[in-house]
Amino acid sequence: MSTNPKLKLYEEFASIARAIGNAHRINILEHLGQGERGVYALSAKAGLSIANTSRHLQQLKRAGLVQSKREGKYIYYRLSGDNVLFLLKSLFAVGEENLAEVEKVLNGYFHERDAMEAVSQKELMERSLNGLVTVLDVRPRDEFAMEHLAGAINIPLSELENRLLEIDKNQEVVAYCRGPYCVFSFEAVATLRQRGFKARRMEDGLPEWRAAGLPLQSGIGK
Hints:
This protein folds into two domains: 5-84, Arc Repressor Mutant, subunit A, CATH 1.10.10; 113-217, 3-Layer(aba) Sandwich (Oxidized Rhodanese, domain 1), CATH 3.40.250.10. The protein is 50% helix and 15% strand. The protein is built from ten helices and nine strands. Strand 2 (66-71) and strand 3 (74-79) form a beta hairpin.
C-alpha cells in the first residue's frame, strides 16, 4: 500500500474499478437500479445461485456501490446513490466509443432490432404531458409496482403478443425497461412495428429517469 496520498486515493478508486470489473456485478447493479431487493429476489433476476449473488453483493458493498439493511433474518440491498448510475453510464459511453467488440454487438443485435433514434427523456416528458404517446413499461410486474414512469401502462414483454388490443394503435408507443441495453424494450419495439404500430424506445431506463428527477409513480396503477 502506497504512502503517497495521491496514490493512496487512486488505490481506493481502483477498488471500485475492480468491483465493477465483472459482467454479473454490472447486471446486479442494473437490477438494483429498479429498486431495493433481497438476495433471493436478486439471484432469481440475475440467474445466479444465492451463494454467488451474495459474494457479488459483498464485493459491491466493500467498494461502496451498494448499501444494505437487515429486516429480521433477511438482508436487502440498494444502490448507494445516483452516482453509481452515472459511473455505469460513463463506463458504457467509453466502451461504445473505444471498444470494437462493443460496436460489433451494438451494430448486430441492437441496431438490427432498432436503428431509429431513441426518444430522449425531455421529448418523452413533453409528449406524455400533451397526451401524444402511450408510455409502455415492458418490465415484469413486480418491478413496475415498485416504481414506474408517471402515466405508463405495464405489459411485460412475455405478455405483449397477447395484449396488443390494449394499446391504442392510433398513437405512438414509447417503450422502456431497465436501462439503455435492456433487451425488453428493443424486442417490444420490434414486435410492435411488425404488428403495424408506430413505436420507439426511450433512450435510457427507469433508473436514469429517476436520477433526472422526473415524475414517477408506485403501485400497480394502470
